[in-house]
């Protein structure tokens, strides 16, 4: 998805528009990945690979919430997996850590490039 965000940064458009477009693409990709993991959790639970311990877990939004908390490596602990879903949860946390790291590098490099271009114009 970072490649798609780079496509949103062609020269000729105002810098703020390009940056906003690329950051929205990155945000959408992170939300999509969290949604895919939530769907994976649902399917894995239906296949009998584990379940979730939670006071209330009755909608798809609860699984998406768990996935968002997990992919950001926040881990609040109000919902926790059991059985083999614990392994999938670990994989999601590692994936989230890598996504956040790559996104931070992309944002830093993009902002640094914009700052150099602005300094040349001044």
UniProtKB/TrEMBL annotation:
Alphabetical UniProt keywords: Membrane, Transmembrane, Transmembrane helix
Gene3D superfamilies: 1.10.287.70
Segments passing through the bilayer: 21-43, 63-80, 87-108
Domain Potassium channel span(s) in chain numbering: 45-107
Family matches, as Pfam families: Ion_trans_2
Protein name: Potassium channel domain-containing protein
Lineage of source species: Bacteria, Pseudomonadati, Pseudomonadota, Alphaproteobacteria, Sphingomonadales
